[in-house]
């Protein structure tokens, strides 16, 4: 057991759309990531997608809808729903996903998830 400082973990990297695992929780990866620009539209057929904005603001584009998520707010995309996160300015986000779930929904295009 140990305390994990999310700001310290986020300070270790500058890249965007590159999730880093900071903890394991009941078979899930707890990750921090920085968003800026647009991520491709994608879906996850077998799992919901969890986003908690730590700093900044992001928009979640869904089929015909757009949701603004601000610091301190979370948003869950239900499994199978096509979505695209985007952020005009850098946004820091906490993600929780089952281990092995590709961030793009496709293992061929997914980013690696290094532990930091």
Distance between the amino and carboxyl termini: 16 Å
Major sheet summary line: 7 strands, antiparallel
From N to C, what is the helix and strand string?
HEEEEEEE
Shape assignment: globular
Question: Helical amount among residues, as a percent range?
Answer: under 10%
Cα-atom Rg, whole angstroms? 13 Å
Q: From the helix content, strand content and strand pairing, which structural class follows?
A: mainly beta
Let me know the average pLDDT: 91
Low-confidence stretches: none
User: Which band does the percent of strand residues land in?
Assistant: over 45%
Describe the structure.
This protein is mostly beta strands. It has one helix and seven strands, in the order αβββββββ. Strands 1, 2, 3, 4, 5, 6 and 7 form a seven-stranded antiparallel β-sheet that branches. Strand 4 and strand 5 form a beta hairpin. The longest helix is centred in the first third of the chain and has 5 residues. It starts with 5 loop residues before the first helix and ends in an 18-residue tail after the last strand. The mean pLDDT is 91.
Please name the defining characteristics of this protein.
116 residues
Describe the structure concisely for a colleague.
This protein is 4% helix and 48% strand. The protein is mainly beta and 116 residues long.
Layout of strands and helices, then pairs:
Layout: H1 6-10, E1 20-25, E2 28-38, E3 49-55, E4 57-62, E5 65-70, E6 74-77, E7 83-98
Antiparallel strand pairs: 1-2, 2-7, 3-6, 3-7, 4-5, 4-7
């Amino acid at each position: 057991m140990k305390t994990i400082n999310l700001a310290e973990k986020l300070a270790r990297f500058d890249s965007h759309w590159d999730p880093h695992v900071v903890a394991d929780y009941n078979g899930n990866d707890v990750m921090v990531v920085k968003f800026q620009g647009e991520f491709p539209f994608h879906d996850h057929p077998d799992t919901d997608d969890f986003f908690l904005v730590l700093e900044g603001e992001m928009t979640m584009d869904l089929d015909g809808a757009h949701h603004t998520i601000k610091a301190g707010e979370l948003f869950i995309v239900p499994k199978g729903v096509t979505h695209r996160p985007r952020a005009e300015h850098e946004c820091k986000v906490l993600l929780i996903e089952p281990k092995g779930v590709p961030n793009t929904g496709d293992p061929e295009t997914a980013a690696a998830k290094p532990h930091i």
